[in-house]
Amino acid sequence: MKSDSEASYLKLIDYFEKKTTLTEGEKTAIKSSYKIKKIKKKEYLFQQGEICKYEGFVSQGSFRTYYTDDKDLEHVLYFAFENWWVGDIASFNEEEASGQNVQALQDSELLVIDKPAKEKLFKSIPALEKVFRVITQKHLTVLQKRFLMTVSSNAEARFNELIQRCPTIEQMVPQHQIASYLGILPESLSRMKKQIAKRETHKSN
Amino acid sequence: MKSDSEASYLKLIDYFEKKTTLTEGEKTAIKSSYKIKKIKKKEYLFQQGEICKYEGFVSQGSFRTYYTDDKDLEHVLYFAFENWWVGDIASFNEEEASGQNVQALQDSELLVIDKPAKEKLFKSIPALEKVFRVITQKHLTVLQKRFLMTVSSNAEARFNELIQRCPTIEQMVPQHQIASYLGILPESLSRMKKQIAKRETHKSN
DNA sequence: AAAAAGTCTTAACCTACATCAATGAAACAG
DNA sequence: CTGTTTCATTGATGTAGGTTAAGACTTTTT
Q: Quick check: is B164 in a domain?
């Protein structure tokens, strides 16, 4: 399906063009550097203990990045939908084992690049270097907010913030994974939602 | 005190030379780009609501970065000792209000640079660009670990991890700020330490 | 040297969320 | 279509850490 993959590459080019200007030649270089990788539901880009060999741009579908602790509990670090990135920066760059798992939530498609290809691409398009520096900074800022939110407010406030920031998330992700993202157990989220609903009906009567 | 400031600049140069190679001319450029800024105990590099105009390298003393929430509770995000950096990357780069405070824990000294000077320095020493990209990545990795630690283990495990990673911290920082860093109240840390001590004596008898 | 401000500890009580256990419903595989 | 995981809900009970309040001890300010 040539036209499908063409559309995927266009998403990536559009994404970059929102952050910098590219010549036609540069666009071609980008297209030939990123490869299409399809990942079926519940399968992985990489898992804990493996090296993250690819950095991926989500062209179709969705992913979760999570960490499994020593009590075998999963903790969702991020969700990634279309036009977002997945990967473990530290593992990708240092070529060391990752502590994370990146799993498809549905049959999905990524545009992936490995480290040598990325370095080559940076050399031919220096402006991209800055684009990725900014992406990393943004990433850091988001995580800082998340961390502060986690230590300074309760699960209900975190839930409200999530719904406000990402209103469709409940349609896209099972509830126990939202709970994990919020840092609570599914039982607690279920109870919490019941409480919220009860309060809502009381108010409106 | 010329010799004092000379020693401060040497710390910064040594720091950079661990990550890249520099010519004498580049070292001179670095020295003339960073300015010395002394900050007395309890005073600030910047506060919540202000723009972080300087990125600082701690040449003497120590700092805490914290956030004050809507209930007026302080949450320590980082400590910074000698040879560490302070600042708010997002605020510094985007020139927007910061949500953080950077406060000296004792009379301290920074080598600071503002955004125009940093951009100019990057132009004259492109290798530094990569150094800072790596610093930001490292920063992100550290924060990710911290976040996962916070959601996947209890305060005692976090305390033990901190002591192991930074054994002298209890001599350098008041206990209520360590509590804040751990995400608990000073009373809880005090109680926790008592429990630990009780267990220790039981074991050794 | 006195006053004020900051720090640490202890104790009694409270609450948000975890844990354990059971159930029904939905999704999925053979 | 049917047995089997997976998912959501609910209830009973447990606990880490929060809240409030008080006292002692130390450091800083005047």
A: no
Work out the pLDDT band at A205, boundaries 50, 70, 90.
low
Distance in Å, residue B106 CA to nucleotide D25 C1': 22
Q: Rounded to 5 degrees, what angle do the CA atoms B153, B157, B159 make? A: 125
Q: Which of A55-64, A66-75, A76-85, B20-29 has the lowest mean pLDDT?
A: A66-75
Question: Looking at the complex, does the CB of residue A195 fall below 8 Å from at least one CB of chain B?
Answer: no
pLDDT band of residue A3 (cuts 50, 70, 90) is: low
Statement: the CB of B192 is under 7 Å from strand D: yes
Structure tokens, A163: 């719904």
Sign of CA dihedral A67, A72, A75, A76: positive
Cβ partners under 8 Å of residue B179, min gap 6: B185, B186, B188, B189
What is the percentage of chain B residues whose pLDDT exceeds 70? 97
Rounded average pLDDT over B144-155: 94
Residue B181: CB atoms within 10 A of its CB come to: 23
Q: Note whether residue A11 is domain-resident.
A: yes
Domain that holds residue A117: 2-125
CATH number of the domain enclosing A87? 2.60.120.10
Taking the Cβ of residue B89 and every Cβ of chain A, the question of whether any pair is shorter than 8 Å is answered with: yes
**Is residue A188 a part of any domain in this protein?**
no
Q: List strand D contacts in B 56-95 (CB < 7 A).
A: 73
Name the minimum distance, in Å, from the CA of A26 to any CA of chain B: 22
- CB within 8 Å: A89 and B137: yes
Name the domain count of chain A: 1
Max CA separation in chain A (angstroms): 64
Question: To probe the interface with A, which of B149, B152, B180, B181 has the most A CB atoms within 10 Å?
Answer: B152
Q: 């409106």: which residue's tokens?
A: A204
Q: Does A191 contact strand D, using a CB cutoff of 7 Å?
A: yes
**pLDDT for B192 beyond 70:** yes
Residue A183 lies in a domain: no
Task: Look at A137 and B89 and tell me if their CB atoms are within 8 Å.
Answer: yes
Q: Among all chains, which residue has been given the structure tokens 């001590």? A: B197
